[in-house]
Amino acid sequence: MHRLAKSSSTLKAARKPRSAPKASAPPSELRLAAIDVGSNSIHMVIAQVDGDGGVTTLWRMKEMVGLGRISFPSRRLSMEAMDRAVATLRRFQQETQRRQCEKVIAVATSAVREAENGGDFVERVRRELRLPLRVISAREEARLIYLGVRHAVDLEHIRDGPVLIIDVGGGSVEFIVADAARPLLLESRKLGAARMTARYIKSDPISPEDLKTLLRNYDAELAPLCERILALKPRHAIGTSGTIENLAAMSLKWASAKSADGQSSDHHKLGSAGWIEKDALSRLVSRLVESDSKNRRHIDGLDEKRQDQIVAGALLVHELFHRLGLNRMALSNGAMREGILADYMSRHIPDLKIRREVPDPRRRAVLDLARRCNWNQEHSEHVAMLCRQLFDALRPLHHLGPRQRSLLEFAALLHDIGWHVAAKGHHKHSMYLILHGGLKGFTPEELAIIGNIARYHRKSPPSVSHESFASLSAAARKVVRVGAAILRIADGLDRTHCGVVHGVRAKIGKNKIRLRIDGRGDLELELWAARRKMGLFSDVFQRSLSFDLPDPKRT
């Protein structure tokens, strides 16, 4: 049997005690939380993602809420269940804040999807917690489970055929046949343990009549589906979910002597979180069918909150073992919440790489806005470089510090993004996009300074007749005037967008500033543009401005 090993490059579970001190993610990494609002339980995993897409699991939380316990027969979520769910989500949300998660992704499955008042629950979560809760389809649920298992188990080593993945939830059961590259079958059936218990099990212990009715329903649902699964010839079975984990824990004491004495090393080969063996499962099912809920609670490994619905779940898994000819099912720690993370990562790998390359979150926010506005990167970065040089050279005159330098640089990077709206008046469009582009990490005044510097890189200079400038403090106005004056010269010195001016140096006199231009090739158009824009510069620094060209013999 081929090896199903946990991928060491992706998941490294490291559950920490609740008293662990709060720690923030390194600048180049992203901390995410994925929340799965299921029919039985609400699960959350908090993970740290590095720039290469590697994931370290930091924390797992689970609460048995029973959101769908009443909804399956009634098709309505009870107020009590919704109260429990909202309270649980609030605790989870507090944990994400304490652990400084930058992104929280929450999804809901069958209980919310099928309830007549599911929309009311989603709206309540949004209103009370400000948490977007996305209700996903049954097929999407299966796809995310596949991604979660693939992220936790190394499917690349399975060369003799695809694997079968089964997730037994409270409301639905997902069936996936897949290899490492893609899913070959994604199916969901309304056969979850809570649903089947509510619909078919009316006695305790289960009566022969209830048992017969339940098995008849399983036969109708599973017979055609199992034919499709067998046609794909899966060679290994992997189970995930609380129900299957409970069955594995309970059946362990009945595991065969062959496994116990080490003659079978499948457990080690699979690298799984455990397994269920056919003979042990059969003995367990016999005991569960004969026992009532009071006796079941004494079975080692059974979650007390599952004692009523474990019979339906055990009978389903037993049927699948029989119909699919399974002898053993491995367990995977990866489930839908890990799939949520994997799906997010697949869509945001470029962003994660940028985090590694650009650790400053404010700079990342600026570059993200610039990319969204289809910026001219080479020109903008070149102008920003010239702005930094001019700012440093003129520090004896403006007396501004590193914070103001960075605001000028960000304005230079964004000064032309208004072209994304229109060429005419693009400087004003740039300011609007800066103020309303969702830049995070800046104070309102900092955004106003960046926006105004970009707005004044051309046309009319800063004026108190302009509301956006007049509303600034005196200190902020000075930064805008200095920044806009420098940006105008730097923008002029890259008039052709060819980067022919490599650098600038300043010689400051009592009445004049001479800028030494380092460049190569024809610079006349750049100098023409800079001279046309030097009015504000001379006014701000109270000196005339001239330009010294490089020695022609050296160009």
Structural topology:
Blueprint: E1 5-6, E2 30-37, E3 41-49, E4 55-64, H1 71-74, H2 79-98, E5 103-108, H3 110-114, H4 118-129, E6 133-135, H5 138-152, E7 153-154, E8 163-168, E9 173-178, E10 183-189, H6 193-200, H7 208-231, E11 236-240, H8 242-251, H9 257-260, H10 266-270, E12 275-277, H11 278-290, H12 293-296, H13 310-324, E13 328-331, H14 336-357, H15 361-372, H16 377-393, H17 395-398, H18 402-414, H19 426-436, H20 444-455, H21 467-470, H22 474-492, E14 501-508, E15 512-519, H23 524-532, H24 535-541, E16 544-548
Parallel strand pairs: 2-5, 5-6, 8-11, 11-13, 15-16
Antiparallel strand pairs: 1-7, 2-3, 3-4, 8-9, 9-10, 12-13, 14-15
Helix pairs in contact: 2-4, 5-14, 6-13, 7-13, 8-11, 8-13, 11-13, 16-18, 16-22, 18-20, 18-22, 19-20, 20-22, 22-23, 22-24
Structural class: alpha/beta
State the CATH architecture of the largest domain: 2-Layer Sandwich
Biggest β-sheet: count, sense, barrel? Answer: 6 strands, mixed
Strand arrangement, largest sheet?
A: 10-9-8-11-13-12
Mean pLDDT: 88
* Cα gyration radius (Å): 32 Å
Low-pLDDT residue spans: 1-21, 257-271
- The CATH class of the largest domain is identified as Alpha Beta
**Domain tally:** 3
Percentage of β-strand residues: 15-25%
State the fourth-level CATH superfamily of the largest domain: Exopolyphosphatase. Domain 2
What is the helix content? 40-55%
Kindly state the number of beta strands: 16
The separation of the N and C termini measures: 70 Å
Shape verdict:
elongated
The CATH topology of the largest domain: Nucleotidyltransferase, domain 5
Number of distinct helices: 24
